[in-house]
Design a protein that fits this description.
There is one protein chain. With 231 residues, the chain is mainly α. It has a domain of 139 residues. It contains seven helices and no strands. It starts with a helix and ends in a 7-residue tail after the last helix.
Length: 231
């Protein structure tokens, strides 16, 4: 009976972590693809070049490494790997809960940080840095995709408003610019997807808790079955 439970747990963990490994590889590939083909400097929300593509890249690496560790630990019935897998999942769970709490507590400060970074990116795109052409191209992509103009409205661009601000086609006599700014558009986007994001985070936490339970159960089963010497 014990050997049957051990085999069932082993196969379940191997299958689950293999799927997570494939997901991590997909996320990692998407991050690399975005870094190579897209530049979103105007939407950089943190210091340096840590943007959405970098976030995907780091997330893919973490998911791939942790899931591979769980897969190998279950396959080899190695207590050391299983314990390391359990601790890594526990740390990731604490980090996710901490980040979620910080986002709720400092919501106003994060919104202000977003506005400051967008204003800085717009000033750079207007020619106050050496990469103005590159940044202007980034803003063109953002404004076309989101259907917005400037940070608050078209007046942020001053006298030279880019053609990507036009809702249809720019007319030389009476151009029709998008009324909404990119800041309000982004806020609306996050608010509309808040429930989906929350459900996704909860589901991720549940999966991590289940992974921790499976890893610890398999760890105990290996010890009880006489394989405790496998460190």
């Amino acid at each position: 009976m014990a050997q049957g439970c051990l085999k069932c747990l082993k196969l379940t963990m191997c299958a689950a972590n293999f799927l997570c490994f494939l997901s991590g590889v997909a996320v990692l590939s998407l991050g690399v693809y975005m870094m190579v083909n897209f530049r979103m400097a105007a939407l950089t929300l943190t210091l340096g070049s840590f943007n959405f593509a970098n976030t995907l890249l780091i997330s893919g690496i973490v998911i791939t490494c942790v899931s591979f560790l769980g897969f190998l630990g279950a396959l080899k019935e190695n207590r050391c790997l299983l314990l390391t897998y359990f601790l890594l999942l526990f740390i990731l769970l604490l980090v996710e809960l901490t980040v979620a709490c910080l986002l709720l507590v400092y919501e106003g400060e994060i919104a202000q940080l977003l506005e400051d970074n967008l204003m800085k990116g717009l000033k750079d795109a207007k020619g106050k840095s050496g990469n103005s052409t590159e940044l202007s191209s980034d803003w063109d992509v953002i404004q076309k995709q989101l259907g917005c103009c400037g940070v608050n409205n078209a007046t942020d661009w001053g006298e030279t408003v880019p053609g990507s601000c036009c809702s249809d086609r720019c007319s030389t006599t009476n151009p029709q610019y998008n009324q909404k700014g990119c800041l309000s558009t982004l806020k609306t986007f996050f608010e509309e997807n808040f429930l989906t994001t929350g459900i996704s985070v909860i589901a991720l936490c549940v999966v991590e808790v289940l992974g921790m339970c499976f890893a610890m159960t398999l760890f105990c089963q290996i010890s009880r079955s006489g394989l405790g010497y496998k460190l």
